[in-house]
């Protein structure tokens, strides 16, 4: 079976990355799909997810965006690091950087993201606060392919949770995050099971 390397990009706590890595091990993605999480790369040296990755025996790297002059230079360095792993799939998991069109084009068909809203509602930041303020009865998350337009691209999975009376952005975020941990590994495994990732 061909080897399918998954590279996961994070900026923070890395709970989605850990859920994917655990699903890969528990679901025997290596045996069933020839796939493994080859590396976790963070743009923040202090990202909590780096230690979660190391605990799981996954190679980690930091490409610190503050060390670069602009987006183009950062993205070029990031691409070089990612490409060392010859990735079949590049997974954005709480990676809080806007990517240049060149980066997105380079990984076209191989780049996926999870966004903590029911897209097309609430692209961008502070999704939970905006959902509460808008009076939404439901919120959720979306796994989607990444295109040059922020938080657009084919939707691969969505999960819905209720917005409950008295919810704060933090309580809603927690409810949504628990669903993210289910849908993101599922979406990735579905992609891996396809004969071609982007038929
Ligand atoms: C997740 O809720 C993810 O959907 C969100 O950041 C959180 C990362 O948590 N991503 C975005 O807002 C991207 N625009 P994690 O680091 O624990 O996986």
Please provide a written account of the structure.
With 199 residues, the protein is an alpha/beta fold. The protein has one domain: 3-Layer(aba) Sandwich (Rossmann fold). 38% of the residues lie in helices and 23% in strands. The protein has seven helices and seven strands. It has a seven-stranded mixed beta sheet, with helices on both faces. Strand 2, helix 3 and strand 3 form a beta-alpha-beta unit. It starts with a strand and ends in a 6-residue tail after the last helix. The mean pLDDT is 95. The structure holds glycinamide ribonucleotide (GAR). Glycinamide ribonucleotide binds next to helix 1, strand 5 and helix 7.
Task: Record keyword descriptors for this entry.
199 residues; alpha/beta; Rossmann fold; seven-stranded mixed β-sheet; 7 helices; 38% helix; 23% strand; binds glycinamide ribonucleotide
Whole-number radius of gyration?
Answer: 16 Å
The largest β sheet comes out as: 7 strands, mixed
Count of helical regions: 7
CATH class: Alpha Beta
* Percent of sequence in beta strands: 15-25%
Distance N terminus to C terminus? 19 Å
Provide the list of bound ligands, each named once: glycinamide ribonucleotide
Total domains? 1
Class by helix and strand content?
alpha/beta
Question: Which bin fits the share of residues in helices?
Answer: 25-40%
Q: Shape from CA axes?
A: globular
CATH topology: Rossmann fold
CATH architecture: 3-Layer(aba) Sandwich
Write down how many β-strands occur, each being a DSSP E stretch of 2 or more residues.
Answer: 7
**Unreliable stretches, pLDDT < 50, 5 or more residues?**
none
Overall mean pLDDT score? 95
Question: What is the helix/strand order?
Answer: EHHEHEHEHEHEEH
């Amino acid at each position: 079976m061909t080897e399918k390397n998954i590279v996961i990009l994070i900026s923070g706590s890395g709970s989605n990355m850990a859920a994917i890595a655990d699903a890969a091990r528990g679901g025997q993605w290596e045996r069933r799909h020839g796939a493994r999480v080859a590396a976790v790369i963070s743009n923040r040296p202090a990202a909590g997810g780096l230690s979660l990755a190391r605990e799981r025996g996954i190679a980690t790297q930091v490409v610190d965006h503050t060390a670069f002059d602009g987006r183009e230079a950062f993205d070029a360095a990031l691409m070089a690091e990612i490409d060392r792993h010859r990735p079949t799939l590049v997974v954005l998991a709480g990676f809080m950087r806007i990517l240049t069109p060149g980066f997105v084009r380079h990984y076209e068909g191989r780049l996926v993201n999870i966004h903590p809203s029911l897209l097309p509602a609430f692209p961008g930041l502070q999704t939970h606060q905006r959902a509460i303020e808008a009076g939404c009865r439901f919120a959720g998350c979306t796994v989607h392919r990444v295109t040059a337009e922020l938080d657009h691209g084919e939707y691969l999975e969505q999960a819905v949770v209720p917005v409950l009376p008295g919810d704060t952005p933090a309580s809603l975020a927690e409810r949504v995050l628990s669903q993210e941990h289910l849908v993101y590994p599922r979406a990735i495994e579905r992609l891996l099971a396809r004969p071609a990732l982007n038929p």
